[in-house]
Amino acid sequence: MNNNEYELYLGDALEILQTIEKESIDLIVTSPPYADSRTNTYGGIKPDEYNEWFLPITQELLRILKPTGTFILNIKEKVVNGERHTYVIELILNMRKQGWLWTEEFIWHKKNCYPGKWPNRFRDAWERLLQFNKNKFFKMYQEEVMIPIGDWAEKRLSNLSHTDKIRDTSKVGSGFGKNVSNWVGKDKVYPTNVLHLATECGNKNHSATFPYALPEWFIKLFTRPGDVVLDPFMGSGTAVFAALNMGRKAIGIDINPEYYNLVLGKIQNQQQVLF
Ligand SMILES: C[S@@+](CC[C@H](N)C(=O)[O-])C[C@H]1O[C@@H](n2cnc3c(N)ncnc32)[C@H](O)[C@@H]1O
């Protein structure tokens, strides 16, 4: 594939993934169908059967990801019979057995969530973005997602104590760590692992879309132009469009002809830049 090239597939992710060359993908970013205990819901997998369904897919993803690549999995466990189901926790443990490293967990805070009332819990306003890798040494371009230093800096950095200036040589060994004085004179800082993004359900003809900024952020962080981004459950194609708009190559798969045709049509009409 050349830059900005794409491959779209209509079909079952497990079958299509088996046709993709090993170690050929730089970033997988996806939101698989939700677990759903209602039997006839389209695409819904029963929570008790979720691992059995999903693990053959993660095995294929492990095969096709480059050793330096990253897999971002957007998932959140349902409440079943009044308690959180454990299928996501089991999935993490089972994926580690397959050979994945569970590197990090980002939180997507749905900042436009409206209020609700339940007898025993509050509205769920966040989802997991689990980061898996094959190797501790994966590609990560942290400077690409730096953010303005913010209001805290002026007051805090003008009043540094002795401990603020002591070099943090522990933990990651970066020599930078939490030493606050390192930020004097800087305009930008690294973000946290919490992404505050509004949900987008508006006009994309799909009920469970990513906000565009979500795949965009991970594509910036983990890939360079020309790299290959895969979404095996592309839905309305948000990750595919973000990848193409940023000069990456994109591979998208969906089992639903309506979504496949929607994404194909938009790319062919070059509408992806409208996102
Ligand atoms: C949660 S949605 C993805 C939404 C997407 N992130 C977006 O921004 O529009 C999951 C998608 O997986 C698709 N799907 C369900 N089972 C599948 C399978 N076995 N293989 C491929 N796609 C599947 C559904 O049609 C649905 O569009």
TrEMBL record:
Pfam families: N6_N4_Mtase. PROSITE patterns: N4_MTASE (PS00093). It is an enzyme of class 2 (transferase). Its EC number is 2.1.1.-. InterPro entries: DNA_methylase_N4/N6, MeTrfase_CN4_CS, RM_Methyltransferase, SAM-dependent_MTases_sf. One of its GO terms (cellular component) is cytoplasm. One of its GO terms (biological process) is DNA restriction-modification system. Residues 25-262 form the DNA methylase N-4/N-6 domain. GO terms for molecular function: DNA binding; N-methyltransferase activity; site-specific DNA-methyltransferase (adenine-specific) activity; site-specific DNA-methyltransferase (cytosine-N4-specific) activity. It catalyses: a 2'-deoxycytidine in DNA + S-adenosyl-L-methionine = an N(4)-methyl-2'-deoxycytidine in DNA + S-adenosyl-L-homocysteine + H(+). Keywords: DNA-binding, Methyltransferase, Restriction system, S-adenosyl-L-methionine, Transferase. Belongs to the N(4)/N(6)-methyltransferase family. N(4) subfamily. This is Methyltransferase. It comes from Cloacimonas acidaminovorans (strain Evry). The lineage of its organism: Bacteria, Pseudomonadati, Candidatus Cloacimonadota, Candidatus Cloacimonadia, Candidatus Cloacimonadales.
